[in-house]
Amino acid sequence: MTTDKKTDTAIQDENLFLKKQITQISGRLEDKIAELSAIKEIGSALKDIHNFGQTCQTILDIVIKNTLAQNFSIMLLDEDRNRLFLVAASDPDHKSFVEKTSNIFNKKNLDYSFRHGHGIAGQVLRDKKAILVEDITKSPLFVSEVSTKVSIGSMFSMPLFVRDKTIGILNLSHAQSHIFHPSDIRLFNILADFISLLLFTSLESEKLLYSEQKYRALSENSTDGIAIIQRGLHVFVNKKYEELSGYSAEELGRIHLDSLIDFPYDEESVSAVVYGFDKESQHGQLVRAQMTAKDGSVLEVEINVTGIIHNAWSSALVTMRDLSYRRQLEKKLVQFQKMQAIGTLAGGIAHDFNNILAAIVGYTELAFRATAEGHVNKKYLREVLNSSNRAKELIKQILSFSRQSDQQKKALQMDLIVREAIKLLRATMPATVDIQHEIDRDCFILSDPTQIHQIVMNLSVNAFHSMLEKGGTLKINLQKLDLKKVKNIPGFRPGPYARLTISDTGHGIDPQVIERIFDPFFTTKEPSKGTGMGLSVVHGLVKSLKGYISVKSSPGEGSVFEVYLPRILKGQIEKIEKSEECPTGKESILFVDDEETLTAMAGEILVQLGYRTVVETDSVKALEEFRASPEKFDLVITDQAMPELAGDELAKEMLRIRPDLPIIMCTGFNELIDEKAAKEIGIKEFSMKPFFIKDLAKTIRRALDGK
Description:
Blueprint: H1 3-45, H2 52-66, E1 71-78, E2 83-90, E3 96-98, H3 101-105, E4 113-115, H4 119-127, E5 131-133, E6 154-162, E7 165-174, H5 184-220, E8 225-230, E9 233-237, H6 239-245, H7 249-252, E10 261-262, H8 268-274, E11 285-292, E12 298-310, E13 313-322, H9 324-370, H10 376-399, E14 410-413, H11 414-428, E15 433-439, E16 444-447, H12 449-466, E17 472-483, E18 495-504, H13 534-544, E19 548-553, E20 559-566, E21 588-592, H14 596-608, E22 612-616, H15 619-628, E23 635-639, H16 647-657, E24 663-667, H17 675-681, E25 685-688, H18 693-705
Parallel strand pairs: 15-17, 21-22, 21-23, 23-24, 24-25
Antiparallel strand pairs: 1-2, 1-7, 2-3, 2-4, 5-6, 6-7, 8-9, 8-13, 10-11, 11-12, 12-13, 14-16, 17-18, 18-20, 19-20
Helix pairs in contact: 1-2, 1-5, 2-5, 9-10, 9-14, 11-12, 12-13, 15-16
C-alpha cells in the first residue's frame, strides 16, 4: 500500500471519529437545551403558583417532557419521623401520582419511604449532595423498599434545599444504563433549586390555608367566645363571642374592650397583655370578670388572656367562658347531693317503719279474719287495713328518693292512666278551674300505674292550689315524640319519649324559691295546707323511671311542668288482677326474722294457711337447725337485715347444702341487696315488707310450685 493511500485511510477514520463525536456533542447539546427549557418552564411556573397538587403535577409534566428521565419522583422529608416520603411520581406510561396534602399534614402518607442514610435517597439526604449511578446493577447503594413495575438501569438523585435546609429529594431514572452523565450534575442542581422554591412556596401556602380552615372550624364551633384584641379594640371575634355579647362582629369592631368587659385591672399583668404593653408574654392569664351585653344584662365570665402576634402586631387572644352554665351544674350537683342524703335517711326510716307496719298489718288481718261478718269491729279493722295500705304507699313514695321502691315496672299504656286521673280531677276540682287536655293515644312506657297516677295528681293538685283564689285554666297534655338532640343533662339521652305537660294560669313561682320546689318538706303554703312532699315525690318518681322533669314559671304568669319519660315502642297494657282467695298448702316452712313480734305473727298466719311452721329469731341457730335436718323443710322465708348472719349469707349456706331449696327473702329496706341480686344468689322470690296475707300466700305458692 502506498503512503498516499495510508494517509487517505487515516483521514477517513479520523473524519468518522470526529463525525461521531460531533453527533454525540450535538445530542448532548440538544439534551442540555431541553433541560434548559425545563428550567425555563419551571421558572415561568413560579409566576403563577397553584395549590400543591397542581404544582407537583406541573413539575412532573415538565421534567418528563424535557429531560432524559423516564421515571421521576419527588420525596419530601418528614422531620418528626426523620424519613423521606413519596409525594409525587410519574412513570414511562405517563401515569402520575400526587399525594393529597391533607395526608401529608395528617402524616398519613405512609407508602414508599426511606429512612436517613438508607438507599440512594437516604444517602443523598445524609450527605446533602447529588448521587449519580450510571449502572444500577453495579451499585451497592441501590435499595428498593417497595415492589415497583418500572425497570431502572441508571439513576440520578439530588437534594432539595431551602435556605440551606434539606426539604426533600428528586429522583430521575431510566430503564437503560449510562443515560445520565456527570456533566448533568450542575444543570440538574439548578433545576432542583427552582423545584425546591416552587414546592416549598406552594406547600407552605396550602399549609397556611389548611391551618386557617382548621382553626376557623375550631373557632366557629367553640363553646367559648374567642376574640383577638389590638390596643383594646376587637379585630376578630367568633360566633360564640357575638352570641355572648349580643353584638355583631361589625359592631364589635368599633367597640372598645373597656366598654364591654369590667376587668380586675388591679392585675397589672392582665392589663399589660390586653393593651399590648407586654409584647412578649405567651402565658395565659385567667381572670373572672363581668361582661355587659348589648341588652344591658350582666354576665359573669371567665377569661383567659394570652399575648400573641397577629398580622405583625402585638395582640391579645381572649377566650371567654360564660359561668352561668357552670353555676347551673353546681346547683344541680348540690340538689343531687341533697336528694342523696335524704334518700339515705329515708331508707333508714323505711326499714324500721316497715317492720312496725308489717306487724300492724299482720295482726290486723288475723283479727279481721277471726271477726264474724256484721260485727262492728269488722268495720273498724277494715279501716285499719285501709290506713295501713295508705301508709305502705307513703313508704313507697319515701323510698322513691333512694330508688328502692318495690314496685315492679311493666309495659303499660300511659294515656289510659292520664285519662282516668283527669276524670278524678274533674270530679274533685271546683267549676272555677277549667280543665283542658290533649292526649296522644297508644303511649306505652315502662312503669307502675300508681307511679304515673301520683305524678299526674300531685302536679295537678299543685297547679290547682296556685289558682285557688281566682280560678283559671289547667292544661294536661300527653305527647309522643322522638328527641334527636337533648340538652346537657346527665343521663338524659336522645330517643323516644312521652312528654307530660301540666300548665296552669295561677300566681306562678317566685324566682328566689323555684330552685327549691323539689326539696322534701319545702313549701310556701300555710302549715295546714301543705306538707311540701308533693313535688319532691314527683321528682323522685320521675328519676326512678329514668326520666327528666323541668319547670318554667314567672310570678303572675302561671307555671309549666314538663315530664319526659322513656317511651317503649311495643308494650302490653297492664292488666289488673282479679281478687282471688288465698292459696293454701301443707308443706313445712322455716321462717327466720330477728323481730319476735314478726316471727310470732308470721307463725300464726302460716298455720292458718295450712303450713307446718318453724319460726326462729336467731339466724345462726336457724342454720344449725337446717344443717341437722336439711330435708325437713320444703321452703325457707328469711329476713335480710339480721345480726351475726344476714339473710343473703344464710341463703348461700343453705343452698350450698340443698341447691334445690326454695327461699323467699323479705326486707323492709336494704341498700346491699335487691331483687336482681337475690335472684343471682339462687333465691326464688323477693318481697318488700309489709306484706298482706293474700300477697304472702301467692308468693309462697309461686316459690313452692316453681312458677
